Amino acid sequence: MPPPSPLNIVYVPYGNAQIDMDNKVVTCQHGDTECDLNTYEQCAIDVYPAAADYLPFIACLEGKRSLSRQPAQALADCSAEAGLDFAPVQECHDDEDRAWDLNVKNAGLTPADHQYTPWVELDGELYDDSVDFQTALCTAYTAKGGSSDACKAAIM
After folding, report:
1. For the chain, what is the mean pLDDT?
2. CA 63, CA 67: separation in Å to the nearest integer?
3. pTM, 2 dp
4. In sequence order, what are the residues at sequence separation of 6 or more whose Cβ sits closer than 8 angstroms to the Cβ of residue 87?
5. Cα–Cα distance measured from residue 156 to residue 148, given in angstroms and rounded to the nearest whole number
6. Residues 72, 62 contacting (CB under 8 angstroms)
7. Cα(53)–Cα(107) distance, rounded to whole angstroms?
């Protein structure tokens, strides 16, 4: 069995949303569609917790220009593209209690001092975007004992 990876990805689909715990309401910077899609992403992570499973789905969604106009089609297309069974994601999304719990969890994972999105941290520190991301990621990864051919090429 291979050793555990020193890389741990925590993707937090929450952005600049605000949560009202008393009234159980989440308000998103870009409106209800953004909140709805955040919940779908949260559910994808909950249903498929391995980053290798959920990241292709989320990357596809984030890359869709028609997302705000045709979210149902984008969700179907991205599920198929990522090879995910969308039914359990939809079931999670439609379960109001589960969806609320996921929003509360993601609100708690969002740093209180974040100023914009995406807010990217490496080893608990804000990513300095003056450094190429692959180089920064590979530097952190190899410092923790990780090794890959892509990282060797990126930091040499």
Report:
1. 88
2. 8
3. 0.85
4. none
5. 12
6. no
7. 22
